[in-house]
Amino acid sequence: MLESFLHYLTYEKRFSAHTVVAYENDVKQFYEVLNLEDHMLADLTHRDIRGYLVELVDMNHENTTINRKLSSLKTFFKFLKREEKIMHNPMVKIQGLKQKKMLPQFVPENQLWDKSTFDEYDDPFLNLRDELILELFYQTGIRLSELINLKSNQYQSTQIKVIGKRNKERIIPVASPLKMLIDEYLLLRLEKEVDMDFLINGNKGKKLESKFVYSKVNYYLSKVTNLKKRSPHVLRHTFATHMLNNGASLESIKSILGHTDLTATQVYTHNSFKQIKNIYKSAHPRGGD
């Protein structure tokens, strides 16, 4: 049953490999905790699901984690219903747990890096590579998976074509400073024996790996900011927040980020409220304290 579900996620829903693995782990845990076998699924009720919820709470999982697991199970049981493996969906009466609204963390503009931040290697090419990784995240807002899969032919001077979630394509403009950085990197790369297929290479000249990129971002952000969370996604949040603070519309940010729903983009308005208050105080005749 599980194999059929994973095939459905991969080839029909076109979820990323990372997402499919997360769903697989969630469903496997569900089987293990309730000691289930496939033939038992048709007899489950909402009471069994609530019992599972209690088990997850007892394991000290955060509400956000539990809600993610519930989302995986909802997709799983919808699939089973569609395939007529079950008559009744036990998830119908199940609601997620309340959770705190966590605002996206971002790097303040006065804590961004400069060229001197990237001085780890004797080889200027590797320093330039690391700088380019951070600048691509910050200047385009792309996701980690999108960056490591970015091909050389997807860069075309003033724009890059990004293949996002579910293979959706979007075009992101490339500003002059980023263009200069990419062109300099590509020029230096001609002297190296590396794979030219992907836009950016790892230390051994091969395709970048997620852990490698994550560690680079974490390390360089630790040099310039005190943020507890230092990840590629923080730079995506930083891109969106700085764009909004400097006058970009939500619609344009939504398009660049590849969001399908504007509500996903609206979360950045909370981060920008302080900026709006400052503008109001300075611009309105009676806006002072």
Automatic annotation (TrEMBL):
Residues 1-81 form the Core-binding (CB) domain. Residues 102-281 form the Tyr recombinase domain. GO terms for cellular component: cytoplasm. InterPro entries: CB (IPR044068), DNA_brk_join_enz (IPR011010), Integrase-like_cat_sf (IPR013762), Integrase_catalytic (IPR002104), Integrase_recombinase_N (IPR010998), Integrase_SAM-like_N (IPR004107), Tyrosine_recombinase_XerCD (IPR050090). GO terms for biological process: cell division; chromosome segregation; DNA integration; DNA recombination. Keywords: Cell cycle, Cell division, Chromosome partition, Cytoplasm, DNA integration, DNA recombination, DNA-binding. GO terms for molecular function: DNA binding. It is found in: Cytoplasm. This is Integrase. It comes from Putridiphycobacter roseus.
